[in-house]
Automatic annotation (TrEMBL):
Keywords: Kinase, Transferase. Residues 8-184 form the Nucleoside diphosphate kinase-like domain. The keyword Cell inner membrane does not apply. This is nucleoside-diphosphate kinase. Belongs to the NDK family. It comes from the Bacteria. The lineage of its organism: Bacteria, Candidatus Tayloriibacteriota. Its EC number is 2.7.4.6. The keyword Kinase applies. GO terms for molecular function: nucleoside diphosphate kinase activity. Its cofactor is Mg(2+). It comes from Candidatus Taylorbacteria bacterium RIFCSPHIGHO2_01_FULL_46_22b. PROSITE patterns: NDPK_LIKE.
Amino acid sequence: MTEKHPKFERTFVIIKPDGVQRSLVGEIIKRFEQVGLKLAAMKMLVPTPEQIEKHYTLDPEWRRVTGEKTIKGYLSKGLKPPSEDPLEITAKILANLKKYLASGPVVAMVLQGAHAVQIVRKLVGGTEPLTSDVGSIRGDFVLDSYQMSDPDNRAVRNLIHASGSPKEANDEISHWFSKVDLVDYKLVQDHILYDVNLDGLLE
Ligand code: GDP
Ligand code: MG
């Protein structure tokens, strides 16, 4: 069997409640559209805490990996982590994520195009807005930090979730959307983005 062309790669994005409240839905989607990605599905909803917990734990390693990453983050700043147990740390992070994401409407979408997962992660920027690159969505539109969110026992407000790998994307797309919600279609710009021969442009 031949490999599918990279143009068929899909990724999953949620514009979190702060993105909706700050009227950034259009700006965020614009950034994905202008790079050449196309929407394959989109909806607004208020997620339930159960949906959110399932979303983050689709990867059975997520609790351990995120807990370990968080502990490392504390140590690298010369700070004492609130617990040495990664799972205890993630339990708190997950509880806060449930409160944050269920607090209001979110916009969930599937984006399709070459290297969709990696391109969207690049446009979204690093997890903590304090250190997200300038020019990325998180770097340009939000100023939160773990230094502010952790003592207040809340999730860091970073506007967006985006899948971290094609496998994560597939799992998340089936978690949030039904097969019938996903639309396969051509955009007129697909020709200039992907076709080998650019014939047919001149009259
Ligand atoms: P993302 O893929 O960039 O959204 O980041 P992750 O998948 O690693 O983390 C998911 C969520 O967990 C983030 O949006 C944060 O809310 C939270 N999180 C991740 N790392 C940390 C951390 O070091 N400290 C705290 N307090 N929360 C974190
Ligand atoms: Mg992630």
